[in-house]
Amino acid sequence: MREEVADPSYVGRGTTLDSKQQNAVEKEETPRRKLTGFWAKAMRTTGVAMALFQIYTAGTGSFVVQNTLHLMFAFLLIFIVYPSNKRAADRNRVRSWDVLFTLLGLSGNLYYMFNLNRILYELGYLSPTPADIVLGVVMVVLVLEAARRTVGSILPLLSTVAILYAFFGPYFPGKWAHGGFSFGDIVATLYLGELGIYGSIMRISASVIAIFAIFGGLLVHTGGGDVFIRIAYALTGRLTGGPPKVSVVSSMLFGMISGSTAANVATTGVFTIPLMKSKGYPAHFAGAAEAAASSGGQIMPPIMGAAAFIMADILGISYFKVAAAALIPAILYYFGCWMAVQFEAKRLGLLPEPGGGKTPLRIIFAGSHTLFIPLILMIILLVAMYTPTTCAFWSFISALFLYLISARSKSQLYQALKNVLKALEGGALTAALVASMVGVVQIVVAVVGMTGLSVKFSAVIVAISGQSLLAALIMGMVVTIILGMGVPTVAAYMLGISIVAGAFVNVGISPLLAHMFIFYYAVLAGVTPPVALGAYVGAAIAGAHWFQTALTACRIGFAGFLVPFMFIYNPTLLGQGSILGVTVGFLSACIGIVALASSMIGYLLKPANFVERIFLFGAALALIDARLYTDLIGCSLIGITLLLQKYWSWRPDEATPVMVAGGK
């Protein structure tokens, strides 16, 4: 996490975290041990070794045992770096059971590697040996424990429920019952089977997500986050609502390389949240604006979140097509956040600050070639239809080369090499964290595949919705958000498609639209109360109450909650259709976003009363469906509201307090 400010004009103006804020942020983020001595050196070496392995295989092609080595490295890091109890007074001490878990994880992965021919090519998972079953139980327990340490208890509990369903499903009533499986069959499927912990999602984690995590880590550790904040401040610092717009733009840019809501909030929020507070914005609004803006980073191309790579693999399409489809919805999400903070600034009477954003863009860009050239190269390779792994590999190599040759002395080169090693270590830890939650999700996927649970859920959703598209969408939204509470986006997405995707296809939604809808709400679950990790981190930095921050984040990003409905009813928003159709659909959606943001904040030309907000909300709902008559209804409601605000006094005119940003 950086503590340096992004713009020279704001050096020393409260943009670092005090110890209380730092502790609060660390409490909400995944806790790591502060290792020293032997263990610190061992974990640095292991992390760098894992990163080099991932880089090598990204350039030369994956090994047959790629998934196994990937999970083995993850276990070697997780059980030493992450404590079993983050609240323990001695949590920084490596305990004997941590070493035991590490050795057991090493044994289970090596056993799988040495028996790979029997397991895969001789279908050994259909007739497991006693050793298979014993080590299978051990590996399942280790996967659950690794995920508990890294991402919390909710996801392992869901996986445990899935395992219990596999065992006790025959005793469930009616359609929820399944035929039953033996103990050995269940364990062998989870450990050795194609759907188990080494399954297709782990393959994506090992071959695609890991190299992107390492590439993103290099950009972050070599100053990428600071550059994005400086660009955002230069672009928006002098506008109405400048400080929260800095948050929106910087979070959008940083999210392009981070793909993590919590990391996005913690990195850009160190600058933007204190800046907003110093300019007159309430603490909860500052934390909420950052949380809402940061959540959209995972849907912003070109890198997006890990779930996007999984989506491309499941759908059997190129990652470029997924990124291209996500572009307009991502723009709409950030446009909604932009308009929300614009209306909030107007409502509070905050005027632009004349001295904001002093640094010219040309100066910022002049020293940022190590960031932008690799990103441009990645976009070019994606457009040229290279695989995501190849794109990330060559982008990483270019970033590394440009960063090292920019050193102008031996001391600078030495510091650059240290930063690269830190980036490799950080990228490996991120990849290990993803591997741990992917392993748990693979357990759920295996149980769903064994028992036909997805078919049962799909039948229930279709039956309840009565073939109504709107009802099915609302149910899918609610289910995905509930499944996503307290779990990372990739896990929420995988759980969502396991439960909901089949029902969507049954009511006539295309697979790409269905998966994008679920992915979108899996991301938004990160700011939805009562469990909203992004809002927790934002509140911790702002020193605000987390629940008030989470509710405000929902209000700021609420326009984003309608975007998936918009592209379901109007697929041109995913780029499907003519240029004219896409343009008209985009403009219609933008008008709806403005209406909804205005309704949520309570301001259009001036503060809006209850009736005006209802009109605006109705206009937004009408503009979801981009047909001529619905667009006319929506625009008419907006027009009526504008006339009411301009010519009809529903209330005694009250002078709005006017302040220059900064509270002066």
Report on the structure:
The chain is an all-alpha fold and 664 residues long. Among the domains are: 202-423, no CATH class; 570-659, no CATH class. 72% of the residues lie in helices and 1% in strands. It is built from 29 helices and two strands. The chain has helices at residues 19-28, 37-60, 66-81, 96-114, 116-121, 130-151, 154-168, 183-191, 200-221, 224-236, 242-258, 261-278, 283-295, 306-315, 319-348, 361-366, 369-383, 388-405, 410-451, 453-465, 469-484, 489-506, 511-524, 533-542, 546-556, 558-569, 579-601, 610-622, 628-647; strands at residues 350-351, 659-660. It has a two-stranded parallel ribbon. Helix 11 packs parallel to helix 13, helix 20 crosses helix 21 and helix 27 packs parallel to helix 29 (628-647). The longest helix has 42 residues, at 410-451. The two termini are 31 Å apart. Mean pLDDT is 83; it is low at 1-17 and 652-664.
Helix and strand topology:
Blueprint lengths: L18 H10 L8 H24 L5 H16 L14 H19 L1 H6 L8 H22 L2 H15 L14 H9 L8 H22 L2 H13 L5 H17 L2 H18 L4 H13 L10 H10 L3 H30 L1 E2 L9 H6 L2 H15 L4 H18 L4 H42 L1 H13 L3 H16 L4 H18 L4 H14 L8 H10 L3 H11 L1 H12 L9 H23 L8 H13 L5 H20 L11 E2 L4
Parallel strand pairs: 1-2
Helix pairs in contact: 1-24, 2-3, 2-9, 2-19, 3-4, 3-9, 3-19, 4-6, 6-7, 6-8, 6-19, 7-19, 9-14, 9-18, 9-19, 10-11, 11-12, 11-13, 11-15, 12-13, 12-24, 13-24, 13-25, 14-15, 14-22, 14-23, 15-26, 15-27, 17-18, 18-19, 19-22, 20-21, 20-22, 21-22, 21-23, 22-23, 23-26, 24-25, 26-27, 27-28, ...
